[in-house]
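Review the following:
>
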Amino acid sequence: MKPIVAIVGRPNVGKSTLFNRLVQRRIAIIEDQPGITRDRIYADTEWNGRTFTLVDTGGIVPDPAETLTGLVRRQAELAIAEADLVVLVLDVRDGLTATDQDVADLLRRARKPVILCANKGDIPRLQERAVEFYRLGLGDPITCSAEHGLGTGDLLDRVVAELPEGEPPPEDEQVIRVAVIGRPNVGKSSLVNALLGRERVIVSEVSGTTRDAIDVPLVADGRNYLLIDTAGMRRRARIDEAVERYSVMRTLRAVDRADVVLTLLEAPAGVTEQDQRIVGYVHEAGKGQILLINKWDLAGHDEGARGRFLDKLSAGLSFLDYAPRLFISARTGQRLNRVMPAVAKVAEACRRRAPTAELNRVIAEAASMTPPPGEGGKRLKLYYATQGGAKPPVFLFFTNEPDLAHFSYRRYLENRLREAFDFEGTPIRLIFKRRSRSETQ
């Protein structure tokens, strides 16, 4: 496994800015407001030939209560517990504070190697103030400016020098990336924690607790997965803070890099307009998708409830009839044992390629059962088809008149392909092209 380096400190000392600087891309949310980063955020980075996992954490405050700040502190403590090395970020402009000392005490109890990073030291006068941090008794502070990149190379040199040796990951390892998305407070983090079997992301009744996309590895039935927990996607009119806007963008990017998306719907609420937008984005992105109707334990035990809910799904999400539906409860564990096997099946369908000969046999049979449409004395002719790509599967149909391939006939062919090659859970793209004269001859 790659070594893990956790970045910790009190709020607003520049931890997320340092994180983004060290991984050389904008991952953690940065805002001039304390308490922006809440959950742990992971990213791999490399320096001088050493690869390690960097973890950004929320600001630690001396608040043991079960409030949101207490939960953030708990997440930082979990990050420290799993880290091989900890970078304690301090603010030279503020000097040593009582909260800094509280964090240092926490690190001493954890008995983890610590590197002091005296941040915001972008001018000589401020750099001189870093000596104050020797009072923590955690070694020599390294002065840097994460915002301007000053001293970060020295910091990375020190990190690499103190890292334990890690085992290189297998080169042939195939990881299925699974994004967990949905409206705020539908149970995404509860689902991730339940699948992992441990507390990994913040679970709170406060809507919008998760703001960042968080990558969590999972091994199930011998397969390697990467669960991506995301912020709840709100209606655009309700995204008032810049932080919320960043979160929605990050959710959409999480979908873009996923292989399969678990879209959570809330059983008591039914299918909302926002749910339609969310699943529509996943569909247009060409990602495999599974609909998880969560909190089914709260929907009552009426035998007809499941059927009525499925009818609502079919009416509101008619374009998504290919996606599996699972009625679950992340809180009680109801039917959670079916989730990852369904993910594996959908991921395989997304990658599946149909042999050309078999593909054309299926298309010819479909055309004989339901002849292609015609218009104005012309009829659509399907000369041959080939699969042009996967993830999602893309099929090229060479025809005489592509414009005659109406929507209803496209859906008919799509359904025949799904039945023949088991493309459950993945969208299918059908492209109709006019056959060139050279191909006709």
User: Anything to note?
Assistant: The two ends are 58 Å apart (CA to CA). The first strand starts at residue 4 and ends at 8.
